[in-house]
Design a protein that fits this description.
The chain contains 2 helices and 7 strands. The chain is of the alpha+beta class. Strands 3-2-1-4-5-6-7 form a 7-stranded antiparallel β-sheet, with no helix packed on it. The protein is elongated, with a radius of gyration of 19 Å. It starts with a helix and ends in an 18-residue tail after the last strand.
């Protein structure tokens, strides 16, 4: 009986440990579809891409006010379906989005980005709902490009804090 319990515990540990290691600290699925928490304000910066942060972590832009980390670029396949290449380190960009508080930390979440050399900004989030436009059901739809998706006044009033 002890051997069976030990075997069961080992199997559970081995199978669940990778899931625990991949889990984030937030309340969402980890695909950018979770709640935006408290919206602090809006931003617009123009600068040069300095570096990309760890997998899915965003990028750092050297703006006139200093280096700024922005998040919510979306997956590479979304960019490819829109016909736009992600900017390389050293390229100039203009970004628009929302400053939000997540787990007590301020994060700059992108709503759209204009890469130098492109005619139109790539929209990354729906300005009405704040949901990412790269969700799987949208990947095979026509490009979502156009004027920068700056949030309208009162944007985010329908968002819930911590999924409540």
């Amino acid at each position: 009986m002890k051997k069976k319990m030990l075997l069961l515990a080992t199997v559970l540990f081995v199978s669940l440990t990778p899931l625990a290691l991949m889990a984030g600290e937030g309340f969402g699925l980890g695909d950018g579809t979770g709640p935006l928490h408290e919206i602090i304000g809006e931003f617009e910066w123009t600068g040069t891409v300095v570096e990309y942060l760890s997998y899915g972590g965003g990028m750092v832009i050297a703006a006139t006010d200093g280096d700024v980390a922005v998040y919510g670029l979306g997956p590479i396949p979304y960019w490819k379906t829109q016909g736009i290449e992600r900017p390389d380190v050293g390229e100039n960009v203009t970004v628009w989005g929302l400053a939000v508080e997540i787990n007590g930390e301020t994060r700059n979440i992108l709503t759209s980005i204009l890469v130098e050399g492109e005619d139109e900004a790539l929209q990354l989030r729906d300005t009405e709902t704040g949901k990412p436009l790269w969700r799987p059901f949208r990947l095979h739809q026509p490009p979502v490009v156009g004027p920068p998706a700056t949030p309208p006044s009162g944007f985010g009033s329908g968002f819930q804090r911590n999924g409540r």
